[in-house]
Write a structure and sequence with these properties.
2 copies of one chain form a homodimer. Chain A is α+β, with helices and mostly antiparallel strands. Chain A is built from 13 helices and 10 strands. Chain A has one domain. In chain A, a hairpin with a 5-residue loop joins strand 8 and strand 9. In chain A, helix 6 runs antiparallel to helix 7. The first copy, chain A, is globular and about 75 Å long. Chains A and B meet through strand 1, helix 7, strand 4, helix 10 and strand 8 of A and strand 1, helix 7, strand 4, helix 10 and strand 8 of B. Chains A, B: One of its GO terms (molecular function) is peroxidase activity. Chains A, B: Keywords: Heme, Iron, Lyase, Metal-binding, Oxidoreductase, Peroxidase, Signal.
Chain lengths: 447, 447
Amino acid sequence: MTATPPQPPEPSSEAPAEVPGVSRRRLLGVSGTAAVAGVVAGAGGLWAAERASGSTTSDAGALAAPSGAAALDAAIDFNGEHQAGIVTPAQDRLHFVALDVVTKDRAELVALLKTWTRAAERMTAGAEAAPGGLVGGGPFAAPEDTGEAYGLPASGLTVTIGFGPSLFDGRFGLADRRPAALADLPAFPGDQLEAARSGGDLCIQACANDPQVAVHAVRNLVRLGFGTVSARWSQLGFGRTSSTSTSQATPRNMFGFKDGTANVKAEDTEALAQHVWVASDDDASAGWMTGGSYLVARRIRMHIEVWDRTSLQEQEDVIGRDKKEGAPLGGAKEFDALDFARKAPDGQPAIPMNAHVRLAHESNLKGVRLLRRGYNFTDGTDGVGHLDAGLFFVAFMRDPRRQFVPMQQALAEKDGLNEYIEHNGSAVFACPPGTQPGQFWGQQLFA
Amino acid sequence: MTATPPQPPEPSSEAPAEVPGVSRRRLLGVSGTAAVAGVVAGAGGLWAAERASGSTTSDAGALAAPSGAAALDAAIDFNGEHQAGIVTPAQDRLHFVALDVVTKDRAELVALLKTWTRAAERMTAGAEAAPGGLVGGGPFAAPEDTGEAYGLPASGLTVTIGFGPSLFDGRFGLADRRPAALADLPAFPGDQLEAARSGGDLCIQACANDPQVAVHAVRNLVRLGFGTVSARWSQLGFGRTSSTSTSQATPRNMFGFKDGTANVKAEDTEALAQHVWVASDDDASAGWMTGGSYLVARRIRMHIEVWDRTSLQEQEDVIGRDKKEGAPLGGAKEFDALDFARKAPDGQPAIPMNAHVRLAHESNLKGVRLLRRGYNFTDGTDGVGHLDAGLFFVAFMRDPRRQFVPMQQALAEKDGLNEYIEHNGSAVFACPPGTQPGQFWGQQLFA
């Protein structure tokens, strides 16, 4: 840090006073100024500056106003009313892990949640998992960070935690704090669930614009949990399939269709309050979830080889949108309203009765909506000549019993898409509200 | 293409006359000029313009000189003396697939290679897999492109083909054209190879800066091969672990160390000629491989949980470099020469006798070097609480019998790293030379 410091610009007037919210980029930009050096030291010495010193990005890029590549590199605030990684504009890449708690000691679990929160906060800012970083512990200690993200920018990393129903089974004295909404999902028609891809006491969702940064975050949290937790299943997603902000273009899923056009967006605070965030009077026995949200994950294998041999018309009828533009059938543009009464020239509904968009639409579900945040995956082959590809569905909601369950019930019964998909993994988690500086994940639950 | 054309700059004087070498970006930039519109039409109508029209990148970015994000978006030339994807500066993401040929009809195989070559050429330029694109075949045909990369830029895609030893078993009349260098790899001490991750009649390596573009390329080639080939195994890599150009920073592997510092680089044409490209007099019976290279792939599971609990000194001794800088032990900087005679203060060799860098160094292997082009992977969990993570080793060379085999023999016998890794997949392929416009992959082999 002392050798050849870069010529720094003046600190931005927008730089927050608290270190936890400072991005690694901002620290980089001001690392030569004594005032801010004090702030860095106050946070435990090397921290964000550690990973920064190995940065492979150019100073010019690092100091420019965030846009394009710089925006993809930037840091997201960790603390807030809600956890990051829910309404944060969906990053491009995902690493998701479900874990089982292997200790029966509540204090060990709480200690880990504290350690994890600090590590996640640091990594979100672009720093190593712990202050020692790669080498700070000296030659005879295991490094405090595994190192594979050293030199990479924060990359928009968010780390989001969730608690599964099984965490409330009595091992940790939490049985009477389980929210009623955190019920195991019922079996749906056609489910082909595999135990090795389902459930979990805890989950960690790491999203970033660089997959190496997302993998690094999960790997280091799992490492810090050695002896306390064990990885149950994990899923990489290479491409987002939803937009969670009106600023984002709608991406495409592995069926080649735009996905999530009608998603709840971050800008629609009224819809978020109604459909995503748990309110204080939702559940008297689970007030700790106020400001949190429930996460439903489903691993949906897509039989892409069969899909790829079906006609364009079949594909569009099954989805209910046109393939190229993403417009509702009978409409012209992606964001045209869905007109379910409209007839095609042949007198049949323009959007077929069993089309995915009709069955999943709020008008068919008494107003139910979700915030979808899924990812495309391809995990090798299935052993019989096909790619094991699909959609890792992730959605956030206020109450799965009133949102995901009736929606999936309707889809599982009638959706034409069922011919081409298979749900083989499933889990539900309660994601507690966000933290304030110094708080830990789930502090309200363990209070 | 006719509606609201962007204001184009003058065509670059470097733009080649042949369409196949024209990148989608260049087509975008000049799509308003009649002269070039004719060139586009001459290539079959919609082609590159098809995917372009859905582009989510800004015009400003598309028209700027390639640098930063624009460079990551740009197209790589498909045709050339050598296949792209070997000395091309290693892109960030990988999708690799090995396939078995399921037909016994040589003509069908040749027809597929022709189809594949045109499709790979188109996708490399940022276009759909075939001229019809998503919707050109009309409502009653299956789309000619699966669509998930529609709107994405070329993203530096390269598609590289290889032929496995089993392709020369006599089914296709190729038995007498098998190069002697394309021998099955011998068993190495410690190998834990799984059949479902090994071998294959053919391989396709797709590298890109956007994983969705790499997956799209493999998926569409597999789709085009339905009935002729079947996917045997496939591997995603989320982060490159080698630099293949002096212009690239050295990335880190899942052990957190810089990897491939001493790699053969694209700029060292003498080393490429000596170690990578097959020369015309290498093998009289396999002249078709002149200008080609042999690809060795090894799926190396890393036991990262064990590694993460070892001391920094053990890690650095095993690798032979320091973790933070990547300098040889006893040296100061990453690119310092390896001094194997140097003693540490305790009188022992600074670089231990069984350190990875010592055993893999050319001075220990009679001058043998490889061009490494591997990727980090994380494929879920192993079912007993660990992430299934590691290095998908890919290397290109002139003769595996004289290069990879003796190197791996030395490593398998003595490398301290063996305590932490396990080779569970293996394959070798002959990658034919590059194509000229109109030629197909392996044309010389089937001539």
